[in-house]
Amino acid sequence: MLKPPWLRVKAPQRERIGAVSDLLLDLRLNTVCQEASCPNIGECFASGTATFLIMGPGCTRACPYCDIDFDRSLRALDPTEPIRLGEAVARMGLSHVVITSVNRDDLDDGGASQFVACVEEVRKRSSKTTIELLIPDFSGDWSALRTVLDVAPNVLNHNIETIPRLYKKVRPQGSYQLSLELLRRVRKGWKKVYTKSGLMVGLGETDDEVLDVMKDLSSCQVDIVTIGQYLSPSAKHLAVDRFVEPRQFEYFRKYGEAELGFLQVISSPLTRSSYHAGEVQRLMKSFPR
User: Fold this and answer.
1) Rounded distance, CA 139 to CA 268, Å?
2) Which CATH code fits 5-286?
3) Is the distance from CB of 199 to CB of 213 less than 8 angstroms?
4) pLDDT string in tens for the chain (289-residue length)
5) Fewest CB within 10 angstroms: 51, 91, 101, 263, which?
6) How far apart are CA 98 and CA 39, in angstroms?
7) How far is CA 284 from CA 89, 95, 113, 138, 153, in A?
8) Per-domain boundaries in the chain
9) Side-chain-side CA neighbours of residue 122 (13 Å)
10) 223 near 196, Cβ under 8 Å?
11) Are 274 and 32 in contact (CB under 8 A)?
């Protein structure tokens, strides 16, 4: 299926992204931008931003839409990773940082302690940087969730990814209801944290089913929602079912903000969960907690 014109982006130029790429190589850090083949890598790297991927690059789940490698080797966590990440944030001068991870179902706490260590190191070196954590579901381990939230990130992001009807196909080791429950618990127990979630379209869902997911997220009092077009990384991954037109993405945005009351809906073909993540600082000023 040929990509429509609105999904065509220029290949990133090495001279524009080289500084960030070299720094990541120097500090031996992974990013979602690289591991998940994000189409916005040129824009983000050229502006000096990145979403750091910890405990990776291999994942213990094999979701058929994702380009991150599957790995069951039970790797030990690297105690120097948080230090190196904190150093990268300081050297890049980031005002907002996003930290995410692969799924580590092999670990007792799903990697919650590594998230905490990374937050602590960022704050040591860059105390004014706001921090967004994009977390897995921790297999429903609520003590692991509490561990992460007790370190007080500014934003807690957990992606719902798709509609419930497609979960067995898209997220076979995930649970739609479990992800909703995670978001509910965050809002109930940590009211100062801004919550965020996102989903992909183009996997076989209908527009009405997307709206139903948005309603479910609203019922969990999620603050920010991201909606973007799914793009198949390779012939081995799930195929694209449809390309959603920009006007429909704009409808999702207007409906979410005007009808459901989200603080922000970032909805466009190239939107990804961390796209323009730093805009949350404006929301934090407009809607302080």
Assistant:
1) 30
2) 3.20.20.70
3) yes
4) 778 888 876 655 554 556 677 777 788 887 665 544 555 555 555 554 568 899 977 888 988 988 787 877 767 899 999 999 999 999 888 889 999 998 999 999 999 999 999 999 999 999 999 999 999 999 999 999 999 999 999 999 999 999 999 999 999 999 999 999 999 999 999 999 999 999 999 999 999 999 999 999 999 999 999 999 999 988 899 999 999 999 999 999 999 999 999 999 999 999 988 877 888 899 999 999 9
5) 91
6) 17
7) 21, 13, 26, 27, 13
8) 5-286
9) 27
10) yes
11) yes
Q: Residue 223: how many CB atoms within 10 A of its CB? A: 21
Task: Tell me the sheet residues that pair with 194.
Answer: 155
- Both tokens of 286, joined, read 């407009």
Q: What are phi and psi of 123, to 5 degrees?
A: -70, -30
Run of H or E including 198: strand 194-201
What are the tokens at 144?
Answer: 């692991």
Residue owning tokens 């190589």: 25
Query: CB neighbours (10 Å) of residue 85?
Result: 24
Tally of CA atoms within 13 A in the half-sphere of 71 that contains its CB: 15
Q: Which of 207, 193, 215 is nearest to 261 (CA)?
A: 215
